[in-house]
Each structure stands twice: as structure tokens, then as C-alpha cells.
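Long-time lurker, finally posting.

We've been working with T5SS/PEP-CTERM-associated repeat protein (Roseateles toxinivorans) and I want a structural starting point before designing mutants. I don't trust myself to interpret raw outputs, so I'm hoping someone here can both generate the C-alpha cells and explain anything notable. Sequence follows.
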Amino acid sequence: MPEGSSSSVCAGAGAGAGTQWSGRLLRTAASRCSSLLVDDDGSQLTLAHTTGNEGQIFVASSGRGDMTVRNGGAVNAFTLGVGNGWELDSQGSVTLDGTGSTLTLDGVDWHRLSINRGSVTVSGGALLNAAACTNAQLILGQNGGTQRLLISGAGAKLSYADTLNGGLWIGRSGATANLSVANGGAIEGVNLIQVGNTGAVASFNVSGPLSSITYGSSVADLFVGRGAVGVADNANTFNPTVNIGWSSNGVLAIRDGAALRIEGLAPTGPELFFEGAGVIAGNGWGAPSSGRIEVSGPGSKLETLGSNPFITVGGGA
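Top reply, 14 upvotes:
Generated this for you. Predicted structure of T5SS/PEP-CTERM-associated repeat protein:
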């Protein structure tokens, strides 16, 4: 495609509601500027995976690209990469909006969602379905750049299948990343969230009534390294172990009537670290670390429940 050109692909709406497309590999902005729209109930795009790199969607592998799934449209793919091109100006944007709109990532062993430079927004009751991601995390931000994942509005959610390695990495390898769950949005069944890792600056915010993070029943951990976590405005998160300052510096702030409730399982010998209900601040595994916990405002609280609740400040390896 020539420099400065643009292109668009539409399934549903202008292409006819209920359109169903299928293929093995899709790139938007493989040159400069491209867009993909999957619109209306019954409209569906499926990328089949049989081997190798098949079944992948790349939004802005070079240049600028956009993907929108709305009004009940559906996309099924093995992986989704946003702004993953080598060009520093590559920027990707993915929007899932409206009840019944879904993006399903069905791979198992790879990083299913990788946002290098760009944003993903889930709103209006849409679903980002990561239930098949049983042995890999979704990555928000790596290799520099700025990234954002927003889950906002009643019914909007990122859903896992309550498996051991289903989780989120927010900020890796020098990235600047932000995950926000707001206005009734939700993350369900997650078992691992890392905020700020390997030189990244990251933030994770949960705000607004009915906004929630519900952890699965497997080993569940929240690591806050060089970054910050905020829980505000009557939102809730549930997690057996919170680590603040994991080989880095971390801050946990609970304000304005919000609650972080940590409910652990009965410990079984050496697995107390994983199965006890607790908070560890500044636990320095292999590097200088510092952690800070702030609880402020009427009704704000940090609760540790279970048979062996604990709070540790200034632990180290």
C-alpha cells in the first residue's frame, strides 16, 4: 500500500448485517492507516488456527490501525497484537462496545493479548473472553511505549476460566501502562496480576460502584512493583495475596470508602505464602525494594481474612 494511503474492512452494517468472514491471518495497518469494523448482531470474523502463526490479528503492525467490534458483533482469534510493529510511530486501537459484542482469544500457550503501543477499550456490556488462556498471561505494555486497557460500564468485562496461569502483566520492559476498571466494569476469574515489572512504570485502578476484580480459586497473587494500585469509590477486589514492592518500589492506596478484601484459603505447610490471606510490602526478592500502604477516607478498609491472615512490611529474601 503506498505511503499515506488508507484502507478499511467492514463486516456487518455497510457489508450487510449478519456477515460472517473467516481466514487465517489478518493485519490492519500493515502499511500506513487501516481500520476493521465488525458491526451488528450476527456479524462475525473468525481467524482459524491450525499451526504456526495462523489465527492472529495484528492491529497496527506498522503505521496506525483500528479495530472496532460493536452492536453484538463477534471476533474469534488465536491471538491479538496491538501496535506490535517495529516502527516507533505504530499505534493501535481496539474498541469493543455494546451488549453481545465479543472478542474471544482461544490460544492456550502464547501471550494471547499483547499491547505494545496503543489501547483496548471494553465498554457498554462487551466481553473480552480469555477463558481459553490457561497457560499464558495477557500482556499490557512491553518494550517501551504507552499502553492502556479500559474496562468500563455495567456488564463490560474481561473473563478468565479460573485457571492457574490465567492473568495480566501490566507494564514490562520499560513500558508505561495503565489498566482501569471503572463504572461497573469487571475482571473475573483472574489468578495473577503483575503491576510494573522489569523497568516498567504501571498503574492499576479500580473505581466506581459495582466495579470489581474477582479472583479464581487457584494460586492468586497481585504483585505491585514499580507502579501503583488504586481502589476507590466503593469498588472491590478479592485476592489471597498482595505483594507491594516486588524487587522494586510499589504503592497501594485505598481511598474514599473503597475496600480491598483479602480472603485466603487454609494453608498447607510451605504453601502458606501462596494460600494464606495477606499483604506483603517491600519484599525485595533479589533487588532493593520498598512498599507503602495507604488507607484513607471514611469507610476505607483493608481486610485480611482466612485461617492465617497476615500483613508483612519490609520483608526480604
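Before you design anything, note these points.
Residues 23-313 form one domain.
Residues 1-5, 265-276, 283-287 have pLDDT under 50 and may be disordered.
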